Amino acid sequence: MPKVSEDHLAARRSEILDGARKCFGEFGYEGATVRRLEEATGLSRGAIFHHFKDKDGLFLALAQEDARRMAEVAATQGLVQVMRDMLAQPDQFEWLGTRLEITRRLRTDADFRTSWAERSAELTDATLGRLERQKTAGKLRDDVPNDVLADYLDLVLDGLVARIASGQGGSNLSAILDLVEESVRKRDRPESS
Asked: Which of 21, 50, 139, 187 is within CB 3.0–4.6 Å of 134 for a Cys-Cys bond?
């Protein structure tokens, strides 16, 4: 039997994740049956589960990959930029439905909550690192701890994801992000007379 290269395995894994992202986004975790996953990926269950232990492992890998993508942008440009990208190119964010599934499962599944906490630290770390660098550069307000700012931005992100994923969108979302960005910036203090 010929040996399969690591590049081929990585490409197949990526192909599975792309198909699964669409499937989970469209049908939710429960509705993403093995048959639907097969149809979305164009692969058999054996091929899918050769790369992932089970459906839960596939979903966690997908969620982790999406968090890693967000972390890359958050580390260099900030979490608000991640949100601006969502508004500018919603078709590039097929994982919005997956993010809603993550939220639902965090609320209802203790095992998932534990696994996700271990895997989602990258986005939190990227956001906190960016906030620290911005604060050190004198660009962020210094009267609010970084962990509070990070939680605030994450809360806004969750609200934005829910709004976009539900199809509500809205013409004011960009202006709202301007307001959010302004709220974390260091305020110029008026000179005293």
From this structure: 139
Inter-CA distances, 160 with 93, 117, 131, Å? 12, 21, 20
Helix 96-108 crosses helix 6-31 at what angle (to 10 degrees)? Answer: 60
Q: DSSP string of 74-109?
A: HHHH-HHHHHHHHHH-GGG-TTHHHHHHHHHHHHH-
Strand, helix or coil at 185?
strand
Residues 47, 41: Cα–Cα separation, whole Å: 10
Give the chain's end-to-end CA distance (angstroms, integer): 84
Burial of 138 (0-12, 13-18, 19+ CB in 10 A): exposed
8 A C-beta contact, residue 9 and residue 52: no
Q: What is the pLDDT of residues 7-34, one digit of tens each?
A: 888 889 999 998 998 898 888 888 999 9
pLDDT at 160: 87
| Residue 160, both tokens | 């934005």
Q: What is the mean pLDDT of residues 131-157?
A: 93
